[in-house]
Specification:
Length: 649
């Protein structure tokens, strides 16, 4: 039987929460990115700065908040947004203190407030300095606000259920529980407007309520939460309103009911969920390693002690923590994406609750000094072990890649690319917000598979799209049939897409340079692909094309080696190797060796022994990049030998 909570708040807990914010914020600001990071960060920064519509599920609450910050802060937009991320995650650390303090108060009501707040603080700092949690503070994304909402939803759920249980035991009027239930439901709905994985908290919270006041009371009280929950969802109304204005970024064009439901439900990602046993095994390998390393390899032992303590004293909390951790793990293991880190936040939160209880058990068994020593040890160990992997202050690779990709291109060039994380996404920010080479039209090849992007492209560059109007009309008709659920042939649609892209390229070649970083579009018969910077210039003939002098913006980032870093460095090197081959074919052997030497300078110096498990075997991608640069070095040495021999003679 769980004891009734009599001290829901305390001055030491409030002070500890403020201290958690004050300690974590400088760390987050010191390690945050000063520019655009990989993957979706460029897109989200561009969308927030223009109050547009980002990729599903739209994230209206974050976009409205971030847009206001950008327009009010007198600094570079990306810097303001990254600082906002750091502040939000630090605020989440403060809320973690309040959550853990309440858990400890429930487990041991007689526990003195000061040592209880100290244990809550140590646990919150431990969680805040896990790699999973810390990395959310590195740059603007949807997850920093998720770090605020997740612990807040769980905390308010505890507050509400405590109030209901207290009233049932004292026969008091239910006004207090009604207010707290209203706040809990409102914030839960609002959290869902930021990230749908808030639903992963549902199994634990439902079990908590059922265990605390039974099925009958649960069934009677939950319907009362519907109105505030729906009020919390109101920010979603912003999506169709803003989309109807046709903003620069209008992902999914959710101004119709069908498009709105498709967008907010994340329908495009369903094929990646529960995709098969093979990918699940790869993700489980990463999750197992990350969960242990996140808590300095010692935290799981403390979590086990906490689980035993809560099972005996507060079974509902043990079930809550276990289901929160398990729900997050099950979803993450079955989500087939390479950037899985952020989806482990729920699991880390559940483990954090158990670690807090584990420190309490250590205090009871070995004394306050031992518990404090363990708490401080976990905090310091996490800070030391994870600083390198969480320090993005030196990451300029996406910004450099965009500058080096489109900077050297001729005026008004048309560039086709499938490089999202280091190409299209950051280019959206730098072209639209910082106005770097806005004359270059960047076409995302993957997004040409959806009709809303074709509509946006036609609005943005009507003079280009008009030249491929017949092919576009045919392709758009087939594509919309498929999007409406009508029968379609995938191969036929893909073939017609190729026809449209080739027609778009051919039409553009009349008055501008057309380049690509992928297999599409194809050069015309008798034409060629010329390595030109980081792209390939589609030429109507096979004549030699000279590259312009260009000083690369690339700067190595040695703090972390992951799939994005390895791929970006390899793209740089491969472009120089391809240019070396081109120079050789066109009878310019003197240019080959300098190009190969230039390619070798992009080596990220990957140390295979430091590469741990990564999602979807991204570690193999990293190791393949390391092998590529080793082979490049051997090629360079072989090419240098004839020159060395000639100089000896």
């Amino acid at each position: 039987m769980e004891a009734r909570l009599t001290t829901p708040r305390s001055a030491p807990a409030r002070a500890a929460a403020g201290l958690a914010f004050a300690l974590t914020l400088p760390i987050y600001l010191a390690t945050m990115n000063r520019s655009i990071g990989f993957m979706d960060r460029g897109e989200l920064a561009a969308v927030a700065s223009t109050w547009g519509i980002p990729h599903a599920t739209g994230y209206p609450t974050l976009m409205l908040l971030a847009g206001a910050v950008v327009h009010l802060a007198p600094v570079r937009p990306v810097l303001a947004l990254n600082a906002l991320a750091a502040v939000l995650v630090a605020l989440g650390a403060a809320i973690l203190v309040a959550l853990f303090d309440r858990v400890l108060a429930t487990a041991t009501p007689a526990f003195a407030t000061r040592p209880r707040a100290a244990l809550a603080l140590f646990t919150a700092l431990t969680v805040a300095l896990t790699t999973t949690w810390w990395q959310q503070a590195n740059g603007f994304e949807v997850y920093p606000l998720h770090c605020v909402f997740m612990p807040l939803v769980v905390l308010l759920g505890l507050v509400w259920t405590d109030a209901v249980r207290a009233e049932s035991q004292s026969a008091a009027r239910p006004s207090s529980s009604h207010r707290k239930g209203f706040a809990f439901a409102l914030v839960t709905g609002l959290s869902l407007t930021n990230h749908m994985t808030t639903v992963l908290l549902a199994p634990g919270l439902v079990a908590l309520a059922l265990l605390r006041f039974g099925p009958r009371s649960f069934a009677a009280r939950v319907p009362r939460l519907a109105l505030p929950f729906l009020l919390g969802l109101l920010p979603y109304a912003w999506l169709p309103i803003r989309s109807a204005m046709h903003p620069r970024f209008d992902w999914g064009s959710p101004h119709t009911l069908r498009a709105f439901l498709h967008h907010v439900s994340g329908a495009d990602y369903r094929r990646l969920m529960f995709a098969g046993a093979a990918s699940s095994a790869e993700q489980a390998r990463f999750l197992t390693w990350r969960a242990a390393s996140d808590f300095a390899w010692l935290g799981p032992a403390a979590a086990a002690l906490g689980a035993l303590l809560l099972a005996r004293r507060a079974a509902s909390l043990a079930v809550l923590a276990g289901l929160v951790a398990a729900a997050g793990a099950v979803f993450a293991v079955n989500y087939r994406i390479p950037d899985l880190d952020s989806y482990l936040l729920t699991t880390v939160l559940g483990l954090g609750i158990l670690v807090a209880a584990g420190l309490l058990r250590i205090l009871e068994r070995f004394g306050a000094r031992a518990a404090i020593a363990c708490g401080i040890g976990l905090v310091l160990a996490n800070g030391a072990l994870h600083w390198r992997d969480c320090d993005e202050s030196g990451n300029r690779l996406p910004e450099a890649f965009v500058h080096d990709l489109i900077g050297p291109l001729p005026p008004n060039a048309l560039l086709f690319t499938a490089l999202w994380g280091q190409g299209v996404s950051p280019a959206w920010y730098f072209q639209s917000i910082e106005h770097f080479r806005p004359d270059v039209t960047v076409v995302c090849l993957d997004l040409t598979r959806v009709s809303w992007y074709l509509d946006a492209l036609e609005r943005e560059r009507p003079e280009l799209v008009r030249r491929a109007a017949p092919e576009l009309a045919r392709y758009r008709g087939m594509l919309r049939d498929a999007e409406l659920g009508r029968p379609y042939n995938g191969r036929t649609i893909e073939a017609v897409r190729h026809e449209f892209l080739n027609a778009l390229a051919t039409g553009a070649m009349r008055d501008r340079a057309v380049l690509t970083t992928a297999g599409l579009p194809e050069p015309k018969r008798g034409g060629s692909r010329v390595p030109y910077g980081l792209a390939l210039w589609l030429r109507p003939d096979t004549a030699y094309v000279r590259e312009p002098a260009w000083r690369y913006a690339f700067r190595p980032w040695s703090s972390r080696i992951d799939g994005d870093v390895a791929e970006t460095c390899r793209l740089y090197a491969e472009s120089r190797v391809e240019r070396a081959k081109y120079e050789q074919v066109h009878g310019r052997p003197a240019a080959v060796l300098p190009l190969l030497a230039g390619a070798a300078r992009f080596d990220p110096l990957i140390r295979p022994e430091r590469i741990g498990p990564m999602p979807l075997e991204v570690d193999r991608t990293v190791l393949e990049a390391a092998a590529y640069f080793r082979e490049l070095q051997r090629t360079l040495e072989a090419a240098s030998q004839p020159l060395a021999a000639g100089s000896d003679r």
